[in-house]
From TrEMBL:
The keyword S-adenosyl-L-methionine applies. This is Uncharacterized protein. One of its GO terms (biological process) is methylation. The active site is at H219. The lineage of its organism: Eukaryota, Viridiplantae, Streptophyta, Embryophyta, Tracheophyta. Residues 91-296 form the O-methyltransferase C-terminal domain. SUPFAM superfamilies: S-adenosyl-L-methionine-dependent methyltransferases, Winged helix' DNA-binding domain. Gene3D superfamilies: Vaccinia Virus protein VP39, Winged helix-like DNA-binding domain superfamily/Winged helix DNA-binding domain.
Length: 315
């Protein structure tokens, strides 16, 4: 990044923060799909206190044009549209802390996966985003991790549209894959050779297999629900069966480096958008949850990519 850009980078986030606090982003997101608004229309919805609406409209226009130049919203000569991205709506983190609630639920009135079940377009976008991230992370894991050797049936719990399982079964041709996720998610999944898609709720049951794989699933859940899910996994695998979990594992002490920041960024994303009690955890915390569910505990196998680790819980 050029020095000048680096020195002024904070102005983008400060302007975005002000636009969010003024409700401009919520007004734009709340407008019917694709409906553009003028700066005057936006200024008319500002919280009481703008002494001069015309002046305020001119400032709103300049702020949004600046944000449009960073791709946050879109501007024509007269009007503004967007953003498409719900995470840019007003944040409720402080409220969530004080009220003991989840910020996403305050903003949207329901937990994240229920909301996605009612918004197929957003769900498709989320599944695609997860799939793209997983392609990178799973590819790196498959370069070095050998824990899939000898498995006949592998169940991917919370497997989304089956990207990880597709990559695993194309390397391990003898594995039959079962991709298990919520019914509205597997209904969006395309057929994958060697993989069966099954819809259901992992907190009710987990389909049987020789081993369970799950990536970025335990971090969604409270400790109590993790143990419930891990007990379902325990019942689903035979003696000597195992769970192979991929998660961003928190170091006990934060490290102020670019790589060191990543797990803590993910943890704050869980705090804002996750389910109640969802969080990133240390290796010791995962070991305790696994033991509480009947497993032998967590073995950290490999740090793979972008802070992700593979943890194996054996019976
Ligand atoms: C963070 S995504 C991870 C997706 C995939 N494992 C990956 O890493 O690309 C979490 C997944 O858990 C699924 N999920 C959430 N609650 C679930 C439940 N109760 N039963 C089954 N799947 C669930 C979501 O639909 C989503 O696909």
């Amino acid at each position: 990044m050029a020095a000048q850009e680096l020195m002024t980078a904070h102005i983008v986030s400060m302007t975005l923060k002000a636009a969010m606090e003024l409700g401009l982003i919520d007004t734009l997101t709340g407008a019917p799909a694709g409906r553009a608004l003028t700066a005057d229309e936006l200024a008319a919805k500002l919280p009481a206190g703008a002494t001069n609406k015309a002046e305020a409209a001119a400032v709103v226009d300049r702020m949004l044009r600046f944000l449009a130049s960073h791709g946050v919203v879109r501007c024509s000569a007269e009007e503004v549209t967007g953003p498409d991205s719900p995470p840019l709506r007003r944040h409720h983190l402080a409220e969530a802390l004080l009220e003991g609630r989840v910020a996403f639920e305050i903003a949207h009135g329901m937990p994240a996966f229920e909301y996605m079940g009612k918004n197929p377009q957003l769900s498709a976008l989320y599944n695609q985003a997860m799939s793209q991230l997983s392609t990178l992370v799973c590819g790196k894991m498959l370069e070095s991790f050998t824990g899939f050797d000898g498995i006949g049936i592998l169940v991917d719990v919370g497997g989304g549209i089956g990207t990880n399982l597709g990559m695993i079964t194309s390397k391990y041709k003898n594995i039959k894959g079962i991709n298990f996720d919520l019914p509205f998610v597997v209904s969006q999944a395309k057929p994958i050779p060697g993989v069966e898609h099954i819809g259901g709720d992992m907190l009710d049951y987990v389909p049987s297999g020789d081993a369970i794989f799950m990536k970025s699933v335990l971090h969604l859940l409270s400790d109590e629900d993790c143990v419930k899910l891990l007990k379902n996994c325990y019942r689903a695998v035979p003696d000597r069966g195992k769970v192979i979990a991929m998660e961003v594992v928190l170091p006990v002490t934060p490290e102020a480096t670019q790589a060191g920041r990543f797990p803590f960024l993910f943890d704050i994303i869980c705090l804002i958008n996750g389910l109640k009690g969802g969080k990133e955890r240390t290796e010791q915390e995962y070991a305790r949850l696994a033991t509480d569910a009947g497993f032998n505990g967590a073995i950290r196998s490999t740090v793979t990519f972008g802070g992700f680790s593979v943890l194996e819980f054996t019976k």
